[in-house]
Description:
Elements: H1 3-17, H2 21-27, H3 49-86, H4 89-93, H5 96-127, H6 133-152, E1 157-167, H7 175-187, E2 192-196, E3 202-205, E4 211-214, E5 217-220, E6 223-225, E7 229-234, H8 237-244, H9 250-256, E8 260-271
Amino acid sequence: MSADEEERETAAESSASVTSPESESESSPKPSEPTGAVAGDAPTDRPAPGDWLGRARAQLSGAGAMIVVLLVLLGFALVVQLRSTSTDPTLAAARQEDLVRILSDLESQEERLRQDIAALEESQRQLASGAQGRQAALEEATRRANELGILAGTLPARGPGLEIRFVAGAKPIRASALLDAVQELRGAGAEAMQIAGADGTPVRIVADTFFLDAENGISVRGRPMSGPYTITVIGDPTTMRTALNIPGGVVASVNGDGGNVIVQEREVADVSALSVPSDLKHARPVS
C-alpha cells in the first residue's frame, strides 16, 4: 500500500471515531427525564399534591357538616324571632308609655310565676316525704282553698298594700279611670281589692266586677257610689305604686283632668267586704 493510500485510510478512521455535538445530545439522557431505577435508591412514590388535600377534606367533612347545620338552624331561629317581633301590630302601634306599662306587667308576672313554681316544688317535696304526706296534703288543700276564697272574694283578707284615694277636680272621676286603676293593680300583682265611695261602704272587687258611669257618680256591680273614691288593695306596695305612676297611666290621666290621686302605703291593709257569688247559667265544671 502506497503512502497516499495509508494517509487516506487513517483520515477516514479518525472521522468515524469523532461524533458531532448534536448526536451526543440526542444519545445522552435529559436531566428532566428519569434515567431508570438504580440499585440502592430509595422508593420515590410520593403522593400527588391533590392527595393530601383530599384526605384533609374527608377528615373535616363530618365536623364541617355539623357546623353548617347548626349555623343554618341558628339563622333560621333568629329570622323567625325578628319577623315575629317586627310584625306584631299591637307593639308596633303602641305608645312609649304603653310599652313601659307592658314591660312592667310582664316583669311582675314573671316574678309571680317564679314564686308559684317555688311554692309548687316545695309542696311536691312535702307530699312525697312519706309519713308526713297526708298531713302535708291536708295543709296544702286548706291553703289552696283559702287562696281561692280570697280571689273569689268570699273570704276577708289582710296584708301589706296601698290605700288609693281619687279626688275629682274640674271634671268628675269617670268609671273608666277606676277600671284602669284596677287593671294596673292586677297587672302589678294585686291579690285582693275593695272600693268605697263617700259613704264608706266597701264593695269587693273580683273578676266579674264592672264599673259604670251613673248620674251622681259611678255604679260598681250595680251599687251606686259618689266621690271621692277609695280603693284598698293588698299586694307589694312598691310594685303597685310604680304601676300607677308610669307615664300615661291612671295617675297622669286623673291629674290631666284636674283631679288628684293620693297613694298611701299600709303595713296592714284590711279588705273586709265580701262578694256574693252569682249563679252560673251556662258554665258547668268539666269532670
